[in-house]
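User: Can you predict the 3D structure of NAD-capped RNA hydrolase NudC? Sequence below.
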Amino acid sequence: MQPIKPEDMGFWLFTQGSSIHLNHGKLPFGKAVDLGLNGLNALKIGEWQQQPFYLIENQTEDTRDYFSLREQLGEPQDYFNLLCRGVELNHFYQTHQFCGKCGGKNEQMSDEWAVRCHACGFRTYPVICPSIIVAVRRGRQILLANHMRHKGGIYTTLAGFVEAGETFEETVRREVYEETHIHVQNLRYFGSQPWAFPNSQMVGFLADYAGGEIQIQPEEIHDAQWFDYDEPLPELPPHGTIARKLIEATLELCQQHHDN
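Assistant: Sure. Here are the predicted structure tokens for NAD-capped RNA hydrolase NudC:
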């Protein structure tokens, strides 16, 4: 990151964990000198509305008001993705101040998003953890689960992290079976979403039921059920999440199956 110049103009992103600073619901925008940003360091990470988008170096002592990144899910996707990029980069810089190879002090690179060790020259790049998320359809029904972290609340799709030496498709089959004992087939890539909590990348799939009866993994799942597309559904994830998009796409497939 570089020292902010008084004349620098643009959007300014402060982060704390997976929270961001907002002023009256908006990111600070304007000239650095007018916003009192002199003496801070920042990095341009993109553009929004044809204006520079700056990530400000993490502040250890900060009395600004911060709000969960999740509250921005309803914003345009490109904007939300920029926010995710900033949160993930600040998380990366904060957790990689020292070299994982020799323990030396890392420095931020100026030509790319990476850090380099002063002692051995080893470079480290932002850590992105791939995770699958999948909606499963059986005829006119969709499989939804109430996870332990949402116990008694939201029902959503199944998800899990990709393990070393595993394809996305293998992860889908493993996670669905581990959490519900259901077998799936006909996997189709749906889309992806950066998920800065703190550094995941959600890779979405649609899948069809292939066999098995629901047996939940009690450590992870509180409840899992098949729901008819035209019957009342439980509380669903918020709009803007890839989980909600997967559910809506699957419900459309359920209706098409019924109509045919």
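The two ends are 58 Å apart (CA to CA). Helices lie at 77-95, 168-180, 242-259.
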